[in-house]
Each structure stands twice: as structure tokens, then as C-alpha cells.
Design a protein that fits this description.
The complex is a heterodimer of chains A (114) and B (111).
Chain A: E1 3-6, E2 11-14, E3 19-21, E4 23-26, E5 32-38, E6 44-50, E7 56-59, E8 62-65, E9 75-77, E10 86-93, E11 103-104, E12 108-113
Parallel strand pairs in A: 2-12
Antiparallel strand pairs in A: 1-4, 3-9, 5-6, 5-10, 7-8, 8-9, 10-11, 10-12
Chain B: E1 4-7, E2 10-13, E3 19-25, E4 31-38, E5 42-51, E6 54-57, E7 64-66, E8 76-78, E9 87-94, E10 101-102, E11 106-110
Parallel strand pairs in B: 2-11
Antiparallel strand pairs in B: 1-3, 3-8, 4-5, 4-9, 5-6, 7-8, 9-10, 9-11
The chains are: A mainly beta (114), B mainly beta (111).
Amino acid sequence: GNSVTQMEGPVTLSEEAFLTINCTYTATGYPSLFWYVQYPGEGLQLLLKATKADDKGSNKGFEATYRKETTSFHLEKGSVQVSDSAVYFCALSDLGFGNEKLTFGTGTRLTIIP
Amino acid sequence: NAGVTQTPKFQVLKTGQSMTLQCAQDMNHEYMSWYRQDPGMGLRLIHYSVGAGITDQGEVPNGYNVSRSTTEDFPLRLLSAAPSQTSVYFCASRSYNSPLHFGNGTRLTVT
């Protein structure tokens, strides 16, 4: 079956530090990959996506590249801000973008200190 | 522009009680789904619906019922609550080939 493994948290960084949250996956076929973000007291929001190998998703300064050879989709940001404090979920869908049968990782809580 | 609205925000039940978690969306989305979020387990799909009158089971459907009589509403029913159903529940919706829109969640505690 499908699975997503992401970096255990919590992660605490100083403002303006470089961020990497690792995500690897196991899936049949060619899944679509996603990063979702959950701010305190809110539901999840799509942060970025990639639907095929070597695609790079980007949004709000965050980037992730779909690496088929390493089955990875690591999330990066060059300079984090306090407002980036949230829980980040890596997810995949092997039935194409837009399918609601997403498989989620366990989430990584990120705290940025001023 | 309400998006996906879940009620209540918080609920405490005793074992064996029943209740319905409400979910409504005003975006005319065809697809709606329920997830539960548990520490260390990410989100897991409970039930989903691809349109009014159509529902199907997700990964963890036992102990939950759903119905979809209108496009807007997708309630989740717990017929006899158990402590294992203590969780945060999220409703989500989308239109075809678009990302999921999540509600803000319902935190349920079963004692």
C-alpha cells in the first residue's frame, strides 16, 4: 500500500534560518505529491504540489521537488519567518491530482522563534 | 465566503452516546470527505462522497455513518461513541481536479 514518511518533529528554528523538512514515499505508479500546512486552530491548506517527476512546486517562498529516483519530496525554505510556525503534512495521491483519497504523513510541527 | 463550515468546534460525549458532526460547504463542490487526525498518525480518511446520494468508505469507516442528501451537506454520525473515537475530525470538499478545502475541525472527546 501507499505510505508517506516525514521528518519527526518538533522542529524549532530561529527566524531567517534555512528550513528542510524531509518526506519520502512509497506508492504504486506515479503519484501526485503535496505539502499541506495547518496553522493553529485551523484546517489544512494546500501549500504546494507536484504531479510528475522533476516537477518543482512552490508557494510563499517554500519549494519542493518531486524526485522519483529517491522517492522524495522534501520541503525547503531559504529564510523562515515567525508566521511560518505551523504543522506541515506531506501527502500523496496515486489516483491523480484532485483525488480525495490522500495518504498523509504524520505531520511535522515547526516553531520559529524571533 | 464561508467555505467549509463544521459544527460544533468542541464536543464531549460519554461512551455509548450518539451524535452527528455537521459539515456544510457553499462552493457547490461535488466531492466531500471526512478525515480524523490523531497524534503520530496524520490524517486518515473515514468516508467520502462524490456527489449527492453517493457515499463510500475510506480507510477507517467502522463506527461511523454518513449520508449525502444534498450537495451542500455531509454529516458524520457516531451511533455509539467509543473512547477510540476521541480525535479531531476534519471535513473537506473539492470540485473536480482541484485541491481539497478543509474545515477548521471538530475536537471530540469520548469519556
